[in-house]
Write a structure and sequence with these properties.
By secondary structure, the protein is α/β, with parallel strands linked by helices. The protein has 7 helices and 7 strands.
């Protein structure tokens, strides 16, 4: 039918090609079809996110791998602030990857997502200009392996952020000091340097 054809057009077109009215129609169509709205996590105002963005603006990378993207605390503001940057996101949880893939299908062609363990990346050496590991290492038992893999697939540098103080998050299995991060980055074959942010450590490993 003609109405079915119009619905198909709404599903298939990128959001950038839809008018405001068509976007609202698409939203209502999704609700009627039983789709759920996902609340993406955005933390643009956090000082550590701003500091990482400052580093990235100095580097001007052409491609970036974000390991452990989760709910997108860093990913969503990254896409907004770097509109030309090709971003690949990986996370071990399929449901989170599904959400990111939905954003890709919605019209963000420069965003790719893969279900992947950060300790076993299925990418060739030096695939990405920059690799980010933000608020990830404190969750991983094999933290050194994750750093090794990040350095392996990076052309220019790896950016890492971790808490600098203990907290009550039950998912944080260890607290990494600046000295520990320095030795881990050096062991992976990169040159470490650091920037201080409130309650966090940002480490940059240059290749």
């Amino acid at each position: 039918t003609e109405q079915q054809s119009e619905s198909d057009d709404l599903w298939l077109k990128p959001l950038s090609e839809l008018s405001v009215i068509q976007q609202e129609e698409l939203y209502q169509l999704g609700v009627r079809s039983g789709l759920r709205m996902h609340k993406f996590k955005r933390t643009m105002a956090l000082s550590r996110v701003q500091r990482v963005f400052g580093i990235l603006k100095g580097l001007q990378p052409e491609s970036l791998l974000d390991i452990g993207s989760g709910r997108g605390a860093f990913l969503w503001p990254l896409l907004a602030d770097f509109p030309q940057l090709a971003v690949t996101a990986v996370d071990p949880r399929q449901d989170r990857v599904n959400d990111i893939e939905a954003v890709h299908r919605g019209g963000i062609d420069r965003l790719q997502a893969h279900t992947m363990d950060g300790c076993h990346l299925r990418f060739a050496h030096q695939t990405f200009d920059v690799v980010t590991l933000l608020e990830v290492l404190e969750h991983i038992s094999e933290a050194q392996k994750a750093v090794d893999e990040a350095v392996r697939v990076a052309k220019r540098c790896v950016i890492i952020s971790v808490p600098s103080k203990a907290d009550d998050n039950p998912e944080h299995i260890h607290l990494l000091s600046k000295e520990r991060l320095r030795s881990m980055i050096a062991a992976a074959g990169a040159r470490p340097r650091f920037e201080a942010v409130l309650n966090h450590i940002i480490a940059i490993g240059s290749i």
